[in-house]
Design brief:
This protein is mainly β. Helix content is 2%, strand content 62%. It is globular, with a radius of gyration of 23 Å. The termini are close together.
Length: 424
C-alpha cells in the first residue's frame, strides 16, 4: 500500500494535508481450454484510493481478453472494469470490525452485498446497511454486468476459468443477457457464525430476447415486438451451521424462489402460465481442517418449454454456464435451472495450505462431472502465482433449447482446462 500527502488550498487559504492511500489490484491469467480448443490471456489492472481514512474510496481499472483459437482467427475484447466511488463506515463490536454501511456507485465488485444471486462486477448502485448485529438491509440497481464466468467460491472463479469469455458492459450484451434494469432489495437476520435468514425481491423491467408467437396466417412462428416482458421474483435463503464433534461440523442451506415472467420467450396469455419456482437444499459437512463433503438437490417447477429460473448469477458449483456459455441463448436461463427439471449432486474437496481441490457429480435432468484443482506455487509481498486445471463435462438432456422449434436435443460440452494466474 502506498500513501500520498496532498496539500489543498482554497482561495489562497491553506486547508491542510489530505492523506491518500492507494492499493493496486489486478491479475494476469493464461489458460488453455479444449472446448473450443483455444488459448487465452486475460489481464486486469486497477487501483483504489482511500481518502484520509474517511471511508471514501475511488477506484479505476480495466480488463482485456485475447483469445487465440487453434483453428480460426484470434480476437480480443476489453472494457473499463472498475470506475467507482464507494463509502464505508465501520465500527468495532467486541474487537470484531464490521461494515455498518457500504455504498458504491459506478462499476464495481458487488460481492459485499452477500446475496446468493448477485456477485461479480456490476454497473449501477448498491448499498448494504447493518442496522444491528443481527439485522441487515441491502438494495441494488443493476444496469449491466461484466460477464467473466465469475462465481463466488468456485475453483478458478477469480482465476483461469474467467477466460471462458469476457462480455463487456455494452448495451448489446445487456440486451442479450439481462434485458432491462434490475432492481433488488432484501434483508437478512444473521449471527454470522451459525445461522442466516435472507429474504429478497427482484424486478427485471425487460427480459432479454424477443417474444415468439404462432401465426395463423403462415402456420409458423414469428418473433414479435410486443411490449416488454417484466420479471419479478421473491426469494429466501436459510442456513444453519452446527458442530457435530471437535473439528467436525455441518452446514444446511435451503433456498427457494417464486418467479413470474415469460422466460421462454413464447407468447403466453393464459394466467399463471408464466409462473415458476425453485426449491433447493444443500448439506455440507466439514471434516477436520479444510476437508469437506456434501450433497444437494434442486427442483424447478413451471410450464413446459425453454423457460426456467432467470438469474444474474448464482451460487451453484456447476460450470455448465461458465465454460462454453451454456445459457439458453434466447432467455439467459442456465441449463440446470430449466422448468420441470430435478437434479441431485454429490461433491467433495479440500482447501488446505493454499491448495484447493473440488470434485462434483450431478445426475437426473442435468448431468455434470468435474474435477478441478489449483495451488499457490509462489508468493511475495502482496502478490502470488497460482496454477490449476482439471476436467469439466456437462449435459442437459432432452430439453427444448429454442423457442422457435419443438425439437428437443441434448446440450453438452467436455472441457479440459489448464490455467496460471499472477495476482497482485
Amino acid at each position: 500500500m502506498r500513501k500520498l500527502f496532498v496539500s489543498l488550498a482554497m482561495t489562497g487559504v491553506w486547508a491542510g494535508a489530505v492523506e491518500i492511500s492507494s492499493k493496486p489490484f489486478g491479475y494476469l491469467t493464461s489458460m488453455y481450454n479444449s472446448q473450443p480448443n483455444a488459448f487465452g490471456f486475460q489481464v486486469r489492472n486497477g487501483i483504489e484510493f482511500n481518502f484520509d481514512e474517511s471511508g471514501i474510496y475511488a477506484g479505476l481499472g480495466a480488463i482485456g481478453l485475447w483469445e487465440i483459437p487453434t483453428n480460426s482467427d484470434s480476437f480480443s475484447v476489453g472494457d473499463i472494469s472498475d470506475a467507482y466511488f464507494k463509502y464505508k463506515r465501520s465500527i468495532k463490536h467486541k474487537d470484531d470490525p464490521r461494515e455498518t454501511l457500504e455504498v458504491a456507485i459506478g462499476r464495481f465488485n458487488s460481492d459485499f452485498m452477500m446475496n446468493d444471486w448477485l456477485d461479480g462486477n456490476m454497473q449501477g448502485i448498491a448499498a448494504r446497511y447493518c442496522v444491528s448485529d443481527l439485522f441487515n438491509l441491502y438494495g441494488a440497481w443493476v444496469d449491466s454486468m461484466l460477464g467473466t464466468g465469475y462465481k463466488q467460491g468456485q475453483i478458478g472463479a477469480i482465476n483461469g476459468v474467467q477466460l471462458a469469455g469476457l462480455t463487456p458492459y455494452s448495451q448489446a450484451y445487456k440486451k442479450a443477457n439481462i434485458g432491462g434494469e434490475v432492481l433488488m432489495v432484501g434483508l437478512n437476520f444473521t449471527d454470522r457464525s451459525k445461522w442466516l435468514i435472507d429474504v429478497f425481491g427482484l424486478l427485471n423491467t425487460k427480459l432479454p430476447g424477443g417474444i415468439v408467437s404462432y401465426s395463423d396466417s403462415t402456420h409458423g412462428v414469428v418473433i414479435s415486438n410486443k411490449p416488454q416482458r417484466i420479471l419479478t421474483q421473491v426469494g429466501m435463503s436459510a442456513s444453519y451451521r452446527f458442530e457435530l464433534a471437535e473439528n467436525f461440523d455441518a452446514k444446511t442451506v435451503l433456498r427457494g424462489i417464486l418467479q413470474y415472467g415469460n422466460t421462454d420467450g413464447r407468447d403466453a396469455n393464459k394466467t399463471g402460465e408464466n409462473a415458476s419456482f425453485l426449491l433447493w437444499g444443500d448439506e455440507q459437512v466439514h471434516i477436520f481442517d479444510g476437508f469437506y463433503v456434501g450433497a444437494g438437490v434442486h427442483y424447478i417447477g413451471g410450464r413446459e418449454g425453454t423457460g426456467g429460473i432467470w438469474a444474474l448469477t448464482d451460487s451453484t458449483r456447476y460450470y455448465g454456464n461458465t465454460l462454453g456459455r451454456g445459457n439458453n441463448l434466447l432467455t439467459g436461463v442456465a441449463p440446470y435451472f430449466l422448468n420441470n427439471t430435478i437434479t441431485a449432486y454429490f461433491y467433495s474437496g479440500m482447501d488446505y495450505n493454499n491448495i484447493k481441490i473440488h470434485a462434483l457429480i450431478s445426475f437426473l435432468d442435468y448431468q455434470e462431472i468435474h474435477l478441478l484443482a489449483q495451488g499457490q506455487v509462489w508468493s511475495g509481498t502482496d502478490m502470488h502465482l497460482e496454477v490449476g486445471g482439471g476436467f469439466v463435462s456437462y449435459k442437459a438432456k432432452n430439453v427444448q433449447w429454442s423457442s422457435i422449434s419443438t425439437l428437443k436435443r441434448n446440450v453438452s460440452s467436455n472441457n479440459f482446462i489448464v490455467f496460471a494466474r499472477f495476482a497482485y
